[in-house]
Amino acid sequence: MREATFTEFRNQAKHFFDLVEAGETVRVLRNGKPIAEIQPIQTDLPSWKLRKARPLAMDGVAISKLILEERGS
Description:
Elements: E1 2-5, H1 6-11, H2 13-21, E2 26-30, E3 33-38, H3 47-50, E4 57-58, E5 61-62, H4 63-71
Parallel strand pairs: 1-2
Antiparallel strand pairs: 2-3, 4-5
């Protein structure tokens, strides 16, 4: 993890964002204390988005059928 003072980060922002884009995390310090970490965004899909959608059913009855019956359709 790279560390930079606030002034360094401000003056060399492009350089530090290039590092982040390359996969590195940058910690920004103010008066020697960490105030922020800039890290790359995960581009992978969450696991729940990878699963195929399945029809919902309650005790063998499709939810859509129950909704239609309740609406009187």
